[in-house]
Every structure is written in C-alpha cells, then in structure tokens.
Amino acid sequence: VILDYLKAEKVLENVGSLLKQKTNFDFNIIVIDNSCNKNNAQILKRLEKYKNLELKINKKNKGYAKGYNDVVNNLDSEYIFILNPDIFWKDENSLQKMIDYMGKNRKVGILGPKQINDKGLIEMTVRDFPKLYLQIARRTFLRYLPFLKERVFYNEMQHLDYNKIQDVNWLQSSCILIRKKIWDKIGGFNEKYFLFMADTELCFNVWKNDYKVVFYPEVVVYSDGKRLSEGGFKKFFQSWVLRIHLKDAIRYRLKHFFDKNPRKEYYKINN
Length: 271
Prior knowledge:
- The protein is α/β, with parallel strands linked by helices.
- The protein is about 35% helix and about 20% strand.
- Strands 4-9-5-10-7 form a 5-stranded mixed sheet. It has a 3-stranded parallel sheet with strand order 1-2-3, with helices on both faces. A two-stranded antiparallel ribbon has the order 6-8.
- The protein is globular.
C-alpha cells in the first residue's frame, strides 16, 4: 500500500520496480493519492493499466494515518507492506526475502529493510522512542550542547550498526512489513495523529502486544531521502508540516508520558 503526496513520478518508479519482484506468493498493489492535485492524479492514472493494482484518488487530504487505515483495515491479507512513494526496489528478490524471514520468525510483528538515499547514504530509519525535548533539540543549536549532544546522538540511533539484523524500538514507516493480524488487533494507525508519530505508536503497540520490531538489512531499498519533516527552528515558523509535527509529537508525549518502554518490558517477560 503506497500513500502518495505530490510524488506521482516516484510512485510510477516504485510500482515499476515492485512488478519486477519474483515471489512464490500473489500480491496486490494499492496506491492512494492524498495530494488533491489534478496533475498529480493524472500522472497516477497511468497505473490503471496494471491488473493487480488499485488506484484510489482522495478528494481531500485525509492525513497519513487515516489515509492508510481506510484502505488497510478492509484488506484480507496475511501481510501488509506500508510504503512511501519514493521507495525503489533494485533486488528482485526483496519481497520474498522479507516474507521468508517473517515466516521463520513468528514473533516478529514488524520488519523493516535498510534504506539508501540518493546521496548513497544510509537513511536512519531506526529511532529510540521519542522524548519531546530531544525532538526539539535535534532541530536547534541545543543539539550541540555538551549535556544534550550524546542524548541526541543516541535518540537518532547514530551509533547503530546498520549491517546487523536486530530488534529495535521503532522503525519509520517509509518501508515496513507488518502482520495483518497484529495490525487488526492494534487497530492500525492512530488517527489522532495527522502526519507523524502514528508509526512510532504502531511499533510501541506491537511491542506491547508481545511481538518484535526488527531491522533487517539483508534487504536494501532505495529512496530519495527527502522528508516532509526536514528543517530547523527557523523553518518551523514557515512550514505548516513542521507545526503539525510538533502538535503530533506533543500529543504522543502526553499520551505516553507515564508509559514504560514496551521493548524493555518485553525482554523482562521473555528472557
């Protein structure tokens, strides 16, 4: 399932690479357009020629969480791939590898591959569970202060070995595979979040429901590396997206202020 916002050309590339995947299972592709832009929709309509693809053009921007939920909640499938529009698959065995890993590791609820951006750099898609003051510090000069520098470094998981298969707190949902039964049990993305933090909470709830979130670098995908939330403190006053990010971050923090780290609680029970 691919949710698009003004990246129609990237979606075409994404779908083209998906259709070259070699699998021993059937899969369907659903593209949702949240752009509310006639030109973007017209480009996406080129996809209608594919038999195993469904295109949904939304008349209004439903937001990230609701945009996915309205489609995924009604699907009858064992697994769901949640994809950003700019994901590109070079290895034609990528889908099969990820499904095979999930089949052999029944306690894995969410699986995410390594991502490489257009600059050839590893996208840091793994994060520690967020703390609001660190999310603010990351975008300002505060990140360089001695007593915050190491905490920001850890929160961004800059120390992580991105060549190692490992359990992680949460994965950005730019490219993740999730078991549909777990999605249904959790209730999908929390629609109180418009653009951000829904993936954070999804992973939080997967751990809470006794399943793992795993980073899987045996599969590598590619992306343009451009994120809606990019920008520093000055851009905050100019960017509607960054203001939404702050609102969603505050909403998440208030909801989980007293919650313990569910990954640590999982290990206490299962070790």
